Amino acid sequence: MSDNQGTPIRKALEIGADGVIVPHVNTREDAENAVQDARFPPSGKRGFGAMVRASHFNLPAKGMEEYVRCSNEGVIVVAQIEEREAVENIDDITDTEGIDALLLGPSDLSLSLGIPGQFQKPEMVASINRVMEMAKRKRIPVMCTVSYLVRPVTVESIRVWIDKGLRLLLFW
């Protein structure tokens, strides 16, 4: 997804995605908007289109009411945490009902912190640790490309991040 706006979120879901990774979630309002854009009323503000690909998966068999209910219950919203402001507001973001997971964006976070690509700098480590601690406390899974967090990538170095709450490990 290219931005945190309703149209790209709706389009992704209309072509059949079961969830979205939403970039630039920096505040509670950003998180709430992402959740609202991914769900139909009364849970959200996503518009309904019977002529879109996703509606053909179950709409005829289930009917509109059941389709909307299943869609709202099944959609996954992942907030991308990639800026200093997101780290500062991580408590509010993770308090937002409907945020199902977080995706750490270490490269953009390092840029936002003014330390491009310096993933082991204390400010970077502290920022990531803050996100991981809050997510773990609130039982929200976190995903990240592991090679940004540890070098060399070993079973032992990855185990540290799993213990911190990393649940989806991407390798680059």
Helix content: 40-55%
Task: Give the strand tally.
Answer: 5
Overall mean pLDDT stands at: 85
> Strand pairing plus helix content: what structural class?
alpha/beta
Biggest sheet features:
5 strands, parallel
Count of individual helical segments: 9
* H/E element sequence: HEHHEHHEHHEHHE
Strand order of the largest sheet: 1-2-3-4-5
**Strand residues, percent:** 5-15%
Distance between the termini: 20 Å
User: Runs with pLDDT <50, length 5+?
Assistant: none
Using only CA atoms, what is the Rg? 17 Å
What is the global morphology? elongated
Describe this structure in a few short sentences.
The chain is an alpha/beta fold and 172 residues long. The protein has nine helices and five strands; from the N terminus they run H-E-H-H-E-H-H-E-H-H-E-H-H-E. It has helices at residues 6-14, 28-38, 59-74, 84-88, 90-95, 106-112, 122-137, 146-149, 155-164, and strands at 19-22, 76-81, 101-104, 142-145, 166-170.
Fold and architecture overview:
- The chain is of the alpha/beta class.
- 49% of the residues lie in helices and 13% in strands.
- The chain has a 5-stranded parallel sheet.
- α1 runs parallel beside α2.
- It is elongated, with a radius of gyration of 17 Å.
- It starts with 5 loop residues before the first helix and ends with a strand.
- The model has no long low-confidence stretch (mean pLDDT 85).
Topology:
Elements: H1 6-14, E1 19-22, H2 28-38, H3 59-74, E2 76-81, H4 84-88, H5 90-95, E3 101-104, H6 106-112, H7 122-137, E4 142-145, H8 146-149, H9 155-164, E5 166-170
Parallel strand pairs: 1-2, 2-3, 3-4, 4-5
Helix pairs in contact: 1-2
